[in-house]
Sequence to fold (105 residues):
Amino acid sequence: MPARLRLAVELTGAGWAREHLECGLPDLDAVRAYARRRGLAVDLRPHGAVGTAFTVTMMHHFANLAGRSADAARVGAYLNSLDEEHLTSPALPAAWLVRLDKEPS
Fold:
């Protein structure tokens, strides 16, 4: 993860990538432990794919530099129209969807 984020910062100056480098991301075991300590059920699901997310980030950056942000928005709209299952890599997700629920009593 850090190499991808460093490259994003170097090329785009993205504040979100800098924040992830400086602060890190929650560890899934830490999320599970947090839920357990509070008596919550936790559901973790992979979301997106690292390669796709990085490529889309770069596409938007370079499209903006080229004055083609409308074209990048069209590509983004197309990707958003696809079923999530086609854009998610369980082996290398871009993020995790976390759902915490009160466990039934």
Observations:
- The radius of gyration is 17 Å.
- Strands lie at 40-47, 95-102.
- The chain has a mean pLDDT of 92.
- Residues 28-102 form one domain.
